[in-house]
Amino acid sequence: MAEKTSSGWIKTILGMVGGLISGAVVMYATAFVDRAVKPAKPVPNFRVEHEGNNVRFQNLSPGFQGWWDFGDGTELLPAAGQDSVAHKYERPGDYSVKLSLSNLFGEENDRTVPLHVEDAPTAAVPRVLSLTAQRVGNSDYAPVTYQIMAKTENAPLCILEHGGADKDEVVNDGTASFDRIVTYDKPGNHTIKLRVVNGTATDYKTQVVTVQGAPTGAVQIALTALESGTEFKTRTQPLVFNETFRADVKGEVSPLASREHTAASSTDRHKEWTIRDVQLTTVNGKEISLGDKTEMPLDGAAFGAPNARNLRLQLSGDRKSVHLVGELVRQTSGKVVTLPTLMIQGTMTEEIRKPEARTVPLPAYLQMPTESKTTTAVVALPALPGDWINPQPPKLSLAVWDAGKVAASNMTIPGRVELTLQNRRCVLTATPVKDKDNKDQVRLDLVLAQARASAK
User: Global pTM?
Assistant: First the structure.
């Protein structure tokens, strides 16, 4: 009887020990699975980029199974296996986009973001407002120089075909107003055509200039003006800072990516553009200007982002780039985690100042004077480009050709030279003068040396 009782107690004790051991195994195994095997509960996060009704969604929480719901009644799209997806909305309007994610244990979470969609903006129709060709020099005889001036609107690309000695040109910088100096070496009718392009829309204008052959017996004067000044241009570009709480951040604070906006783009022919000012628009429509400062604090709440803090707009020392620094703070309400976003929009005013110089040929012809006469020609200098400031006095020089040969060269102006033309001694005088509108001209006087001596 004692043996049976002892055996029963032993079985009871062993059962209790076995239960404790199995419970411990389950407990520690569960903890091990939770810590080492079980994946984290997903926290959906995504970035939205759209132009018109074409929208791209970037999944910032990869590695989970799930679905995209674009909110327009179209089929759900799997979220696994691709970091970004594109979707086209058939109609403008307001939609709710939801990203639902789950891990291997079936734990789910989702994020919903409101989205406003508008029709894709249509490219503004480009127009050639004006195209003029003004002769510079004093004759229509070849060679002859023209100043071609154009004004356009909504034209990011211009194609200038002029048929001159220089090559045709594609203009994609400073297209609103520009001018070019073109020389025509051959007589005939020359068509100048300016075509402007914006997307698939185009416009064009033409001008025809007529160049005559050189007159018989005339003396060719090759007057040259070296002009210099400072090119000054301004332009305004849209500016957007679009930030999202980074999915890889484990804490409550995510630093902004500090995306930079640069003044000169990759398509600019000149890289000297600098930032003159930055204007940001608050949610109530108020504009905040950086002005001459290089740094400015911002209130996140004013831009609809109360969870943004320590926001500062910073301009580089050379004023060639601007970026936004600060932090986004995670929002937690119970078990719901909301990842904050920030979007600040505005404009960036840019300017360029750089030294410019151009050489302008101003061909002229003078008939040989008679014994008692002086042959005179007045050559007008061309107008400077409209975007030049601080012009310097032009440096003038000339050369004289007679029957295809150089009779005089590198004559400075004002100046006087005695030379032989058509086997006769002559005196050429070049004098800078002003017209009635105070515009620069050069007066050329050619007289026979004997006549000049008799006059004295």
Answer: 0.62
